């Protein structure tokens, strides 16, 4: 019997505009990873006018962040699609609560935190 292959679970964190997506695109060119962006998921839901998309629009119109429970539920549900792939999360988690929820479900192997001066 061969050794089982462990899937790589990785995260890029950083402030808005710090270059997370740009770096993620460069990384996935060289490694067999699926990029998973929380912003892309939110924009997709807003375009499709889903319940979460409508809620997202409401929060954003008020200048508020998406609540942790809503964001976590959305991302963990979407990640189920990637169970057989190595993945790179981009923009999630943003808070300790989100990180703890992710940690309960997946073992994350690598976290990159982009610390870009203002």
End-to-end distance? 52 Å
Low-confidence segments, given as residue ranges, are: none
Give the C-alpha Rg: 15 Å
Largest sheet: 4 strands, parallel
Work out the helix count: 5
Please name the fourth-level CATH homologous superfamily of one domain: P-loop containing nucleotide triphosphate hydrolases
Count the beta strands: 4
CATH architecture of one domain: 3-Layer(aba) Sandwich
Strand order of the largest sheet: 2-3-1-4
Q: Order of helices and strands, N to C?
A: EHEHHHEHE
Structural class: alpha/beta
Would you tell me the overall average pLDDT? Answer: 90
Shape: globular
Q: What is the CATH T-level topology of one domain?
A: Rossmann fold
At a glance:
This protein is of the alpha/beta class and 118 residues long.
Question: What does this molecule look like?
Answer:
By secondary structure, the protein is of the alpha/beta class. It has a domain at 9-37 and 67-114: P-loop containing nucleotide triphosphate hydrolases (Rossmann fold, 3-Layer(aba) Sandwich), CATH 3.40.50. 46% of the residues lie in helices and 16% in strands. It has 5 helices and 4 strands, in the order βαβαααβαβ. The chain has helices at residues 20-30, 38-47, 51-61, 68-79, 96-105, and strands at residues 9-14, 34-37, 87-90, 110-114. The protein has a 4-stranded parallel sheet with strand order 2-3-1-4. The protein is globular and about 40 Å long. The protein starts with 8 loop residues before the first strand and ends with a strand. GO terms for molecular function: ATP binding; nucleobase-containing compound kinase activity. This is Nucleoside-diphosphate kinase. One of its GO terms (biological process) is nucleobase-containing compound metabolic process. It holds the Pfam family ADK.
């Amino acid at each position: 019997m061969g050794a089982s292959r462990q899937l790589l679970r990785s995260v890029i964190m950083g402030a808005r505009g710090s270059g997370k997506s740009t770096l993620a695109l460069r990384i996935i060119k060289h490694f067999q990873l699926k990029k998973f962006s929380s912003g892309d998921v939110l924009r997709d839901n807003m375009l499709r006018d889903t319940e979460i998309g409508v809620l997202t629009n409401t929060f954003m119109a008020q200048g508020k962040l998406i609540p942790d429970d809503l964001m976590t539920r959305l991302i963990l549900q979407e990640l189920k699609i990637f169970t057989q792939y190595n993945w790179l999360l981009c923009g999630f988690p943003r808070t300790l609560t989100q990180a703890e929820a992710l940690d309960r479900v997946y073992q994350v192997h690598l976290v990159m935190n982009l610390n870009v001066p203002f």
